[in-house]
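As a next step, the fold was encoded as tokens, giving this record:
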Amino acid sequence: MKKIALIGDSIRMGYQATAIEQLAGAAEIVSPESNGGDSRNILANLDEWVINLQPDIVHLNCGLHDLKREFTTPEQTQVPLEEYRRNLETIFRRITGAGATLIWATTTPVNYDRHHAVKGFDRREEDVTAFNIAAREVAYQFKLPVDDLYTAVMQAGRDVMVGFDGVHFEQQGYQMLGTAVADFLRPFLT
């Protein structure tokens, strides 16, 4: 049975129970208990969360924390786009160098108006797009398969799937994402 590491932020934490349930008996799934946060945090915890566990497959996402913009400094993201790109290059190189099959998952969309109204910082859809483009470019350099969770949410109806805070999902959204992740992973289990 193959071991899969699910790595990502609170969105991963929301959909992982569905993915685990749907892949029961087909794969062993491991993931950190904590929120993966931004690409800096993923990189800092890569040995503990991935390398030391020696998974066969890693399903990875980070971006929503990287692209945060504080109200006091709206001109900059938490992690600048070029640093995000470099962080991903290092993360991808280390995971693939350890022998795991790496799958990149795109950052999910946000509803700016909902998010801005309830959070103490912003997440902008145009940043989601820019960070997804950069991540895809790096993924393509490494010839990684891309699990397009962004498109899955948009096709299902972002504003129906996303909850009151504009970034986290209603239960049906997490179930849809967990099913999408499980479906994407199945061909890698044979």
Notes: The first helix runs from residue 10 to 22. The mean pLDDT is 97.
